[in-house]
Design a protein that fits this description.
Elements: E1 3-11, E2 28-37, E3 45-50, H1 57-72, E4 78-81, H2 88-103, H3 107-114, E5 118-120, H4 121-128, H5 142-149, H6 165-168, H7 178-195, H8 201-218, H9 221-227, H10 241-244
Parallel strand pairs: 1-4, 4-5
Antiparallel strand pairs: 1-2, 2-3
Helix pairs in contact: 2-3, 7-8
């Protein structure tokens, strides 16, 4: 039974979203991280698909096409996300719907098909470790759940990469976080592509940092799913496109 993992990274190049907003109008698709295993006990294949151009819709379309191509070549019976009901699924479905309206594609149906057997591992983790939730939390950070379960999901540290200070201006903390990609790093990556400097050593270093971070979001999620109950989660935490909409 083939298991696929999807995690997306977004950027907000045009307008910073209001605090706690999940309105798709503020977000652009920057990268898709993928993992796949024929058997949950196998070491998964992994891939990161980055945006290949500026913020024009054609590059969003290109990213979807590469996502579907990668998935089509594998027998997917189950999709795992971490908080995909709230974030990844919401945006992937909304962007697909917008693309279909303007570019005459069938992306919405194909995205809905991916989410037909979607299991949101974050919901299972929140139930398992309910006592760890703060009063205003519905979902635990994935790093905390990995720690509670005892899975070594290493952080990605800025100090391990040779990046100029200009790339790190405005970034708080020593470890890469998703919000850093959304606010700074994703846009910097796209600007480099748009400027034609993607072959420079600085851009290569940025790419490696982003790739390592993106892979950390998907590489261990199958193990986390297994640790929390594996296939016993499939019915209770199944969230289809209809549940997300």
């Amino acid at each position: 039974m083939g298991t696929l993992v999807i995690d997306i990274e977004t950027a907000s190049p045009f307008e910073e979203p209001p605090e706690n907003s999940n309105d798709t109008q503020y977000f652009e698709l920057f990268a898709v991280s993928l993992a796949y295993a024929d058997n949950v006990n196998d070491t998964p294949e992994t891939e990161v698909l980055f945006r290949s151009g500026d913020w024009d819709d054609r590059y969003t379309i290109d990213l979807y096409e590469r996502l579907f191509e990668w998935c089509t070549n594998r027998s997917v019976d189950r999709l795992l996300t971490y908080n995909g009901t709230w974030f990844d699924g919401t945006h992937l479905l909304n962007w697909a719907r917008d693309i279909d309206d303007t570019a005459d594609r069938d992306f919405l149906a194909r995205t809905e098909a991916l989410f037909e057997n979607h299991v949101d591992v974050a919901l299972a983790a929140a139930d398992e470790y309910e006592a760890e939730l703060w009063d205003d939390q519905h979902i635990l950070p994935d790093w905390k759940v990995y720690d509670l379960v005892g899975i070594n999901n290493d952080s990605v540290w800025y100090g391990d990469y040779d990046l100029p200070d200009s790339y790190l201006s405005g970034i708080d903390g020593k470890a890469v976080q998703g919000k850093h990609i959304g606010q700074i790093l994703g846009e910097a990556y796209v600007q480099n592509i748009d400027a034609g400097i993607e072959h420079t050593s600085v851009h290569n270093e940025l790419t490696q940092l982003l790739k390592d971070y993106c892979l950390s979001d998907v590489a261990d999620l199958i193990d986390l799913y297994t640790a929390l109950g594996g296939s016993h989660l499939d019915d209770t935490y199944r969230r289809t496109a209809a549940d997300i909409a």
